[in-house]
TrEMBL record:
Leader peptide range in chain numbering: none
Swiss-Prot/TrEMBL keywords: ATP-binding, Flavoprotein, FMN, Nucleotide-binding, Transferase
Pfam families for the chain: Flavokinase (PF01687), Hydrolase (PF00702)
Biological process (GO), any one: riboflavin biosynthetic process
Domain of life: Eukaryota
InterPro entries referenced in this protein's UniProt entry, alphabetically: HAD-like_sf, HAD-SF_hydro_IA, HAD_sf, PGP-like_dom2, Riboflavin_kinase, Riboflavin_kinase_bac/euk, Riboflavin_kinase_dom_sf
Start and end residues of each Riboflavin kinase domain: 234-364
PANTHER family for this protein: RIBOFLAVIN KINASE, RIBOFLAVIN KINASE/FMN ADENYLYLTRANSFERASE
Protein name in the entry: riboflavin kinase
Ranges that cross the membrane: none
SMART domains: Flavokinase
Upper classification of the organism: Eukaryota, Viridiplantae, Streptophyta, Embryophyta, Tracheophyta
GO MF terms, alphabetically ordered: ATP binding; riboflavin kinase activity
EC number: 2.7.1.26
């Protein structure tokens, strides 16, 4: 990617947060809270997620018990929720880019610490399901092993001490506000990867805000750069999504001259929350017509400031007419860039055409071309 931006600071170690930064804990936490609140006759409101991100389990429980006026104590709530959470730790997925980042830093012998507000027992259990993680961190420090959790700097200072590296030479990577606050209070450099959408403006204390781990540029921090980009693209573990083409905002062809065959987000909320917004590419199959190259945006379209996360694939082919209602299947093979805002419509359009050229070229490389034959694109319902 572009290295036009300057070096920010040279660091000697990286301290990573766990929940929301490396693993998609929100997915299971929402499910567990929903099930437990239902027992109390209450309906879990997903918006509460904002309030509990980055908190310790006890703080989380206090908030939920208060907000939902539950007839139990905070301790009782923790006792009830704990086994439900443990049952789900095996289902927590690593966030896109997490394994790549950990492997890259450890391959280059960058000292790595894990600093989580979660209690030690939770941390141990959660990372036991992520292959190779436990061995990779030279220091693991949990919320119950320091006097005060984040936003206190304690956990970060203790991590630096155990790494044997000055706090000012540590880079913290964090999704939550308490984490960013704690890292800065410890005198460290902090990259924020907000796990809650559209909150970038709240992260002013961070030294950099990125939209996912895929966008981290270690060279800004004097660390070895990733070397896995190929012609402006980052190969991903492929994933699939499909369904009938639905009506969007009617803006694609009219305003941009770029039609996007929107997929319904219904039934895909889990998949969507797990994949960061951004520009991706791959192969698209239209039931009646064939397989085509495809470039797409996933997200809130900052230029139009949408309220919903949408999936907008542009099939790189001239069609005679529209194809609403037809089954469309996508295999996503790589990543190009984060979603961005633009100062003019022309510059947004120019950027999308650049994305198209990048995707078109990349999809001829054997590494990406081979997925044109992905079984998912040949599904029997087609
Ligand atoms: P909407 O906001 O409803 O998605 P668009 O202006 O983005 O409207 O137009 C998208 C529609 O145009 C698609 O649903 C599809 O039926 C049609 N279409 C025609 N050519 C293409 C193409 N190359 N890629 C995507 N959609 C296309
Ligand atoms: N919208 C944005 O606001 N920012 C972007 O960076 C952006 N990138 C896009 C990249 C591609 C390849 C495509 C197909 C669309 C992109 N859009 C982006 C979405 C565009 O705003 C959207 O398709 C229209 O608003 C039509 O709904
Ligand atoms: Mg569209």
């Amino acid at each position: 990617m572009s290295t036009a931006k300057a070096l920010k600071k040279v660091v000697a170690a990286v301290i990573l947060d766990l929940d929301g930064t490396l693993i998609h804990t929100d997915g299971i936490l929402g499910d567990v809270l929903k099930a437990l609140l239902l027992k109390y006759g209450k309906q879990w409101d997903g918006r509460e997620a904002q309030k509990i991100v980055g908190k310790t389990p006890l703080e989380e429980a206090t908030i939920v018990v208060e907000d939902y006026e539950l007839p139990c104590s905070t301790d009782e709530f923790v006792t009830q929720i704990t086994p439900l959470l443990y049952d789900q730790f095996c289902n927590i997925k690593a966030l896109p880019g997490a394994n790549r980042l950990i492997k890259h830093l450890s391959d280059h012998n960058v000292p790595l610490a894990l600093a989580s507000n979660s209690p030690r027992a939770y941390v141990e259990s959660k990372i036991s399901y992520q292959q190779g993680w436990k061995e990779t961190f030279s220091v693991i420090i949990a919320g119950d092993e320091v006097r005060a959790g984040k936003p206190s700097p304690d956990i970060f200072l203790e991590a630096a001490k155990r790494l044997g590296i000055e706090p000012s030479r540590c880079l913290v990577i964090e999704d939550s506000l308490p984490g960013v606050t704690g890292g800065k209070a410890a005198g460290m450099e902090v990259v924020a990867v907000p796990s809650i959408p559209k909150q970038t403006h709240l992260y002013i204390a961070a030294d950099e805000v990125i939209s996912s781990l895929l966008d981290l540029q270690p060279e800004f921090w004097g660390l070895p750069p990733f070397d896995d980009w190929i012609d402006g693209t980052l190969p991903l573990e492929t994933w699939h999504i499909g369904g009938p083409v639905v009506k969007g905002f009617g803006r694609g062809s009219k305003v941009l001259g770029i039609p996007t065959a929107n997929l319904s987000t219904k039934g895909y909320s889990a998949l969507l929350s797990e994949h960061p917004s951004g520009v991706y590419f791959g192969w698209a199959r239209l039931s009646t017509q064939g397989v085509y190259k495809m470039v797409m945006s996933i997200g809130w379209n900052p230029y139009f400031n949408n309220t919903e996360k949408t999936i907008e694939p542009w099939l790189l082919h001239e069609f005679d007419g529209d194809f609403y209602g037809e089954e469309l299947r996508l295999v996503i093979v790589g990543y190009i860039r984060p979603e961005a805002n633009f100062t003019s419509l022309e510059s947004l359009i120019a950027k999308i055409h650049e994305d198209r050229r990048i995707a078109e070229r990349a999809l001829d490389i054997p590494l990406y071309l081979k997925y044109k034959d992905d079984p998912y694109l040949k599904g029997s319902s087609l």
